[in-house]
């Protein structure tokens, strides 16, 4: 299927959303994990009674691991939904995670021969636990996650293989392979969930837009117009000018009957283009209220609004609309009313007056603008 600019925009937006979501989740998941390495190292040294022979090593290892845990938390989070910043953040965070796992892995390997039991056992068990935790939790990116698992596991593997027994080393390799498989599966599940959530978000946004936009003309629909009118009435209560126009295409049935419904649709679209081009100033809003009826809100008093409506009507009547291969003169009747706090208790009152003015325009022969008497 060819990609349109709109679908390209949507997929670019979707990729951006996925990246931002990944940043949020990676941060959440990585925030706590860093501290466990320092605590585990402290525990391994604690069982030796922090004897003087190991005091410097303990300080160095525990201090480095805790410092890396602090750095994880302090990496500045990208404030705006900026892709470049988001990628930089992820690169930095994964860099710190990898550094942590390499420091831990090296410590664990050194520990196997340097510290008395049960410190090596503690480090060994923690290495397995960290590897599995990485496989389950930090699975957002496969390559750095795999490297982190290897960082935790491989140094110990070398020691087990060389200094304990080849069988124990082989067991460690099987364990490591299993972790990598778990990580791959966790990664797939993570991506599937992320993409599903993004699809749902997009559908929700699409429904929200569709519920407020007219599908044919892409103008705001009656629902959106009514809400905007309510809000405009509140502002008008503070003294701002507000006028309402209701426009109805004259004898629209004739267009359908003469040229068919497809041409009728095209005529409505063309009419909406003209309307939007004529009322596109600040605070102005055009909408399709239904059928061949349109509404305009404009922050103007009665005289200005009436003059603008007349200009639109006259221009329309003088320049034929081109739609679906047809050129035809289309006219409109307009009802105009302006907000007056003494007469209009609510939006409905103002709307009824504009509607009554439109009725008079129709009864008066069409192709005319009537305003509140
Ligand atoms: N093609 C098309 N026709 C529509 C649409 N909505 C309403 N109509 C038609 O608009 C016509 C409205 O007819 P009427 O209500 O009699 O109004 P009119 O012919 O414009 O006459 P006046 O309003 O009295 O000047 C009907 O034939 C509807 O079928 C639409 O979305 N597309």
From TrEMBL:
This is diguanylate cyclase. The chain crosses the membrane at residues 34-52, 58-77, 89-107, 119-136, 143-160, 166-183. It catalyses: 2 GTP = 3',3'-c-di-GMP + 2 diphosphate. The keyword Nucleotidyltransferase does not apply. Residues 240-373 form the GGDEF domain. Signal peptide: none annotated. SMART domains: GGDEF (SM00267). Keywords: Membrane, Transmembrane, Transmembrane helix. Pfam families: GGDEF (PF00990). Its EC number is 2.7.7.65. It comes from Luteimonas fraxinea. It comes from the Bacteria. CDD domains: GGDEF.
């Amino acid at each position: 299927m060819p990609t349109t600019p709109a679908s390209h925009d949507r997929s670019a937006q979707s990729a951006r959303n996925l990246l931002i979501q990944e940043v949020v989740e990676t941060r959440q998941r990585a925030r706590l994990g860093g501290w466990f390495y320092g605590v585990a190292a402290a525990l391994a040294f604690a069982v030796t009674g922090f004897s003087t022979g190991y005091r410097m090593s303990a300080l160095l290892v525990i201090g480095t691991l805790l410092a890396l845990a602090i750095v994880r938390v302090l990496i500045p989070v990208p404030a705006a939904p900026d892709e470049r910043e988001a990628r930089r953040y992820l690169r930095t965070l994964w860099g710190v995670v990898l550094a942590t796992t390499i420091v831990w892995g090296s410590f664990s390997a050194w520990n196997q021969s340097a510290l008395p039991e049960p410190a090596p056992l503690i480090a060994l068990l923690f290495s397995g636990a960290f590897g599995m935790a990485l496989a389950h939790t930090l699975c957002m990116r496969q390559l750095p996650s795999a490297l982190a698992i290897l960082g935790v596991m491989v140094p110990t593997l070398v020691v087990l293989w060389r200094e304990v027994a080849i069988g124990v080393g082989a067991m460690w390799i099987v364990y490591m392979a299993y972790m990598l498989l778990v990580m791959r599966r966790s990664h797939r599940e993570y991506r599937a969930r992320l993409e599903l959530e993004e699809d749902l978000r997009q559908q929700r946004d699409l429904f929200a837009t569709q519920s407020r936009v007219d599908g044919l003309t892409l103008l705001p629909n009656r629902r959106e117009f009514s809400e905007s009118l309510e809000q405009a009435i509140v502002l008008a209560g503070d003294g701002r000018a507000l006028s309402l126009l209701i426009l109805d295409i004259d004898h629209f049935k004739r267009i359908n009957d003469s040229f068919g419904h497809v041409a009728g649709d095209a005529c409505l679209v063309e009419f909406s283009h003209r309307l939007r081009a004529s009322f596109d100033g600040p605070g102005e809003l055009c909408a399709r209220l239904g059928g061949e009826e349109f509404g305009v809100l404009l922050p103007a008093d009665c005289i200005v609004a009436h003059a603008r409506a007349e200009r639109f009507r006259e221009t329309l009547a003088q320049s034929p609309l081109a739609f679906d291969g047809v050129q035809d003169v289309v006219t409109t009747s307009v009802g105009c009313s302006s907000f007056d706090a003494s007469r209009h208790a609510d939006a409905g009152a103002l709307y009824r007056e504009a509607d009554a003015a439109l009725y008079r325009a129709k009864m008066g022969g069409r192709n005319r603008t009537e305003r509140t008497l």
